[in-house]
Design goal:
CATH topology of one domain: conserved putative lor/sdh protein from methanococcus maripaludis s2 fold
Helix content: 25-40%
Number of helices: 4
Structural class: alpha+beta
Oligomer: single chain
CATH architecture of one domain: Beta Barrel
Largest sheet: 6 strands, antiparallel, barrel
Order of helices and strands: HHEEEEEEEHHEEEEEEEEEEEEEEEE
Length: 387
């Protein structure tokens, strides 16, 4: 009984303690919420006062500026900009067109004798040297004719030698001697012709180059003039491009050309070797041929970019093209003068690769507003920073 009473007393004490703790926590949280709400209200009040004060300052500045122009000028904020100089340098303009590498030794090698293809050694894409065998045509009939003629010639030589000895001894007639001589010489010519014909049965590379296409198959019957191999030489390469007719009379033989090969990352300087005399009615262009020296890795049909110089001014004034702006008076750039941006109207010439030639308006050396040029206006205060 005593134990039970003791437990009840402890439970009441613990309950009072918990209730007291919860009451304090609730009061503390409520106090924090009251303080936070007060801070937010105070912040809003300050912001309202700040905006109101800002408006008053702006209105006051406007009123003073209308009465005092010097105050307005000094009160403007400086714009942070970078600058570049108008350059005095040589300026070139180029016509850019796409060209293709071609070969003057792009030939179809044809059969010169009739017969069946006995052997094909050429493979498409294979590089071969001058004189290398590409294909062989069966020449059995020619071989038989050669054997027969050689025997006939052997007999003709014997008869000619005997007739010559008799003629030297003044035995026999001159006609007999001449007939023997003529027969021997005729057989010699026929034999030489057959041997030439036999040599033509073996098709060889006429120069160093690459096999583009083999147009016959093993065992196929061919006739004289029938194409067997399409062959492209590695020398005598040139570049051909199509130029707009608007450049007729501008481009001449001997003009400088810079050639770029994008696929191999090479550039060379060369010359125009020929200018076409006919306008293509389909695309209104004319052909231009450019000399191409022997270069490693340059192949026929490779794409190239031709940059043909059509204009040059060795004493030009140039500026970056993106700095040139336009208004209703014309084109202009911003020049920095006494810490201010000033419009300088210009007359622009040719433009190439984001650089423009200036014909009038600049003398070179002027400090131009670069980065930030779109944020400034006439008379804006500027502060130059390092780019």
């Amino acid at each position: 009984m005593i134990t039970h009473i003791y437990r009840n007393r402890n439970m009441k004490t613990f309950s009072k303690l918990v209730l007291s703790t919860l009451t304090m926590m609730t009061f503390s949280c409520g106090q924090q919420e009251i303080d936070l709400a007060g801070l937010k209200a105070q912040l809003k009040e300050y912001k309202d006062e700040y905006h109101e004060l800002g408006n008053k300052i702006e209105d006051l500045e406007q009123e003073i500026s209308e009465k005092d122009t010097s105050f307005a000028a000094n009160n403007r904020k400086s714009v942070l900009v970078t600058t570049v100089k108008a350059k005095n340098e040589s300026f070139q303009h180029y016509v850019e067109v796409t060209g293709s590498v071609l070969s003057k030794k792009n030939v179809n090698i044809s059969a010169e004798v009739s017969g069946r293809v006995q052997e094909i050694k050429a493979l498409e894409g294979m590089r071969v040297a001058k004189g290398q065998v590409l294909a062989v045509i069966d020449a059995e009939s020619v071989d038989n004719s050669i054997d027969e003629l050689e025997k006939q010639l052997e007999l003709a030589n014997i008869l000619f030698e005997k007739q010559q000895r008799l003629w030297n001894k003044e035995i026999g007639t001159e006609v007999q001697f001449l007939e023997a001589k003529n027969r021997k010489e005729t057989l010699e010519k026929n034999l030489a012709s057959l041997k030439t014909q036999k040599n033509k049965a073996t098709i060889r590379a006429p120069f160093h180059g690459t096999i583009e296409e083999v147009t016959v198959r093993l065992g196929e019957l061919v006739q004289p003039g029938m194409p067997i191999v399409n062959f492209v030489g590695e020398s005598d390469l040139y570049i051909e491009g199509d130029i707009s007719e608007s450049f007729v009379g501008v481009l001449e033989k001997g003009d400088s050309v810079r050639v770029e090969f994008p696929s191999i990352g090479k550039e060379i300087d060369t010359k125009v070797t020929a200018v076409g005399a006919i306008i293509n009615p389909d695309n209104r262009t004319f052909k231009v041929e450019v000399f191409l020296p022997n270069l490693q890795h340059v192949k026929p049909n490779m794409v190239s970019i031709l940059r043909i110089k059509d204009y040059e001014n060795k004493k030009a004034i140039t500026v970056p093209t993106n700095l040139i702006q336009r208004d209703n008076k014309g084109e202009y750039v911003f020049v920095v003068n006494d810490g201010k941006a000033v419009k300088r109207y210009i007359t622009k010439g040719e433009t190439y690769h984001r650089v423009s030639e200036i014909k009038e308006g600049l003398s070179g050396g002027e400090t131009l507003v670069d980065k930030g040029f779109r944020e400034v206006a006439e008379g804006s205060k500027v502060e130059i920073v390092e780019s």
